[in-house]
Amino acid sequence: MNNKSPLAIELRDISKRFGSVQANKDICLQVPRGTIHGIIGENGAGKSTLMSIIYGFYAADTGDIEINGTVTHIKTSEDAINAGIGMVHQHFMLVENFTVLENVMLGAEGGAMLKQGKAAARAELKRLASEYSLDVDVDAVVEELPVGLQQRVEILKALYRGAKVLILDEPTGVLTPQEADHLFIILKSLKEQGVTVLLITHKLREIMASTDNVSVMRQGQMVAHRETKNTNKEELAELMVGKKVRLKVDKDEATPTDVVLSAKNLSLIDSQGVKRLKNVSFDLKAGEIVGIAGVSGNGQSELLNVLSGISALSEGEIQFSGETITPKNHKNASQMRDLKMAHVPEDRHKMGLVTGFEAYESAILGYHNSSTYNGSILLDRKAMLSECEERMAKWDVRPPNPHLKTANFSGGNQQKIVIAREVEQNPNVLLIGQPTRGVDIGAIENIHEEIVKLRDSGKAILLVSVELDEIMALSDRILVMFDGAVVGSLAASDADERILGLMMANAYSDPSEKAGDKA
Amino acid sequence: MTQAKVPAWVSIALIPFINVMLAFFVSALVILALGEDPIEAAGYLIYGAFGYDEGIGYTLYYATNLIFTGLAVSVAFKAGLFNIGGEGQAYIGGLGVGLVCLWLDSSMSLLVIIPLAIIGGALFGAAWAYIPAYLQARRGSHVVITTIMFNFIASSLMVYLMVNWLKQDGRMSPNSRTFEESAWLPYMHEMLAPFGIEISASPLNAAFFWALICCVFVWGLIWHTRWGFQLRTIGTNATAALYAGIDNPKVTIWVMLISGALAGFVGLNEIMGVNHSLLLNFTAGYGFAGIAVSLMGRNHPVGIIIAAILFGALYQGGSELAFEIPSITPEIVVVIQGLVILFSGALENMLKGRIEGLFIRKSVA
Question: Are A479 and A281 in contact (CB under 8 A)?
């Protein structure tokens, strides 16, 4: 690292623990003044936690933060602002129905009466805008501005408060490619004016295109520092993903038979008009597990939602169980269940369970209309309870108490309740999202075995997971999603972390072309 | 997960009890400031509400209305809807009951009129809840706003109907004619007399039994039917409901219809049980008090019965109190009722966290 220029930020041995999770461990980081410094890592690598520590949202358990060469104690974001640090969050912190000027002034009104402060702020904004080429109409109402301009307002807000260090958390996640390009021009001009930029991202292209230095985080630790010009995408992808111990799942070669689900050009446009799924097509055969890899937020959740009937398609069609589902012929989640589609959602708390219900009630969610659980008028509690007890025994749910509130089971046991509910319906297709998120090791094996067992009984399984290990251990075929589209498809036997990592960052180019010059 | 460590009796019994005691404490300060003895006042209040059979009759008569409106609020609340329109739904439900009585009282017997009046009250109350329900479910207008507005509309509509259509000819007061006795719900003292049980006359009537039946009905509906399962799923986790394929708008509309029907039964007690004619303002704020009753009763029928009796006792004991101690005017009694609503309803969460925290720490230690 170039130690000649003075450091804007130096972190020494920062550690932070949340309960049993070590979010940051002995993090050291040196950021020279007036540079753009990238921090890259997978989801959950601890990037956001680290930035939250610098910005005063969390206090580090141990370690020192030095700003411009002096040890600074940052307990609140106010301390951070006073130390000259500004942050642009992934989700903007703007008052939507205020004007740009009012948003920038917010928290720095400069007196009880607005008029004077406003005039001063207007003058200062004008200066900042011309100095950093950050043109925004200061009297525009924020909600009427496009996202790229809203982000500019956030940057102006930080600069207005005298920020000399600007932290941007996944800044391009909400931007169009053109807006992103413009952002990087702005960052370059900020750098020329002596502002230090910390760029948090998981997109390798952005790191390569705009940073001076890059630090890689993995599982809460800082694993490498590189000068951007001395590294390349392949190296960064490998550092990011690391060589993990492979999860072992005993399974035989898959023997896929008939196509049971066929997705053609699926597209989904959300209520904001953003295209979340882009022409996704694939076939799912009985007796195979297809894994969907991807950094979360690249359309996997939306794909599960349209397949399970939670969201209606915007374009395309799904052929399943003799039905053709189109935007006009939508089937809701309950109708999809009747067609023997089971769905273990990615987020069991938000979707898969009602945490306030007793376990035996959560255990029928979605199947509550089934005659198994209903008498002529009342719910058949006896049947519900005895079935729940049976399943708890079979799936080793602990404690095996159907009357315990769902919230009081551990994550792994909650997940078993959900998976048991879906698998025991004997579905033709099982959609399963993040099957082992927040589940302890013992239960992970158990869940993986059950998924393979279901495959071997001739069912089709679509697996979405952000854990590459899990995708590689379970899948027979892997699709990679990026920005709502399927960008890669390969047999599990051809996949390794590096290829998947590059595909997930949409930075993969065909090896047959590159094979020569790499060797 | 911390919730689990709070014993059930703390949130069901202890916290409501402490809230009521706080309300009484502040009431005592008010009474002290008036130069009266709070202990003496409390004595009159309790004696007035529970000390003799006529007092008990009145207490339960008030409680009947509050059970209906409390249930109405709780059914909606279980589905995550805040139905503030109980007052208007009770008003229009009463109109339905009254119209059935006016229509059939001279031609039919009581046994025919009772079920038809129940249906009339339910239909009219439900109809009044339907428009806010539809607007919430299909158009996204917030049910709190629309139900409040519909209270005012109900009030104006009733004035118009009473003055222009239902008033007796040649009378100044906006009352309908008195029903024939065949459309009077029997009083409790009349019903018990044949069994040799002599109690003093009070307005308590057969509607009280219907209120208890409604409690059982609501309990079964919410906790023992698949429909109640859907309702509770929507109320606690709307995303999970979507995942489960539950038709949220449809359930929302039905919940509000049932809620409105329950509120509409106030008309059975007031119109058919006591006044025996259609008149203005018979709802007298029961719809709003039902919100406090439901909150205090933790949205459970058993809790609602207990809370309704407490509020009924405040109504009845309060009027006794105002009678016995002239310097405590009826307005002061309203203040005391208001304090109970304030502490047990609006300030319900003021102490909750701290008391629960106390028990959580205890159980951890």
Answer: no
- Alpha carbon dihedral B22, B24, B29, B32, in 10-degree steps, equals -160
In the chain, the amino acid numbered B167 is K
Decide if pLDDT at A130 tops 90: no
Residue B240 and residue A353: Cβ atoms within 8 Å?
A: yes
**Collapsed DSSP state (helix, strand, coil) of residue A405:** strand
Give the C-alpha separation, B37 to A380, whole Å: 56
pLDDT value at A252 more than 90: no
Cα A220 to the center of its chain, rounded Å: 16
DSSP 8-state code for residue B84: -
Q: Which of A54, A395, A82 is nearest to A215 (CA)?
A: A54
Q: From A334, which residue of chain B is nearest by alpha-carbon distance?
A: B245
For residue B239, give how far its alpha carbon lies from the nearest alpha carbon of chain A (Å). Answer: 5
List all residues 6 or more positions away from A446 whose beta carbon is below 8 Å from its beta carbon: A395, A396, A416
Complex-level ipTM? 0.82
**pLDDT tier for residue B137 given thresholds of 50, 70 and 90:** very high
Cα–Cα distance measured from residue A226 to residue A214, given in angstroms and rounded to the nearest whole number: 5
Averaged over B22-39, what is the pLDDT? 93
Confidence of residue A373 (pLDDT cuts 50, 70, 90): very high
Q: How far apart are CA A426 and CA A130, in angstroms?
A: 65
Closest alpha carbon within chain B to A345: B243
Q: Is the peptide bond preceding residue A399 cis, with omega within 30 degrees of 0?
A: yes
Pick from A152, A237, A163: which is nearest to A198 by CA?
Answer: A163
CA distance B308 to B313: 8
- Which of A350-359, B163-172, B195-204, B225-234 is predicted with the least confidence, judged by mean pLDDT? B163-172
For A295, left (φ over 0), alpha (ψ -120 to 50), or beta? beta
Q: Given CB atoms, is B229 within the 8 Å cutoff of chain A?
A: yes
Task: Report whether A478 contacts A487 (CB < 8 A).
Answer: no
Cα distances (Å, whole numbers) of residue A290 to A287, A321, A475, A496, B354: 10, 18, 5, 16, 50
Chain segment B258-315, per-residue pLDDT in tens: 999 999 999 999 999 999 999 999 999 999 999 989 988 889 999 999 999 999 999 9
Give the span between the Cα atoms of A24 and A14, in whole angstroms. 7
Q: Which helix (H) or strand (E) holds B26?
A: helix B15-33
SS3 A318: strand
Contact of B2 with chain A, judged by CB distance below 8 Å, is answered with no
Q: What are phi and psi of A120, to 5 degrees?
A: -65, -45
What lies within 8 Å, CB to CB, of B187 at 6+ separation is B201, B202, B203, B204, B205, B206, B273
Question: CA of A408 to nearest chain B CA: how many angstroms apart?
Answer: 6
Q: Which tokens is A431 given? A: 């959609």
Q: Which helix (H) or strand (E) holds A214?
A: strand A213-218
Q: Which residues of A touch B (CB under 8 A)?
A: 308-310, 332-337, 343, 345, 350-357, 361, 364-366, 368-369, 373-374, 377-379, 381, 405, 407-408
From chain A, pick out residues whose CB is under 8 angstroms from the CB of B226.
368-369, 373-374, 379
Nearest to B218 by CA among B270, B273, B266, B261: B261
Measured CA to CA, the distance from residue A211 to residue A38 in angstroms comes to 6
At CB < 8 A and 24+ separation, what contacts does A176-180 make?
A: A176/A148, A179/A146, A179/A147, A179/A148, A179/A151, A180/A206
Q: Mention every residue, 6+ apart, whose C-beta is less than 8 A from residue B113.
A: B100, B101, B104, B105, B182, B183
- Quick: pLDDT tens for B158-174: 999 999 989 888 888 88
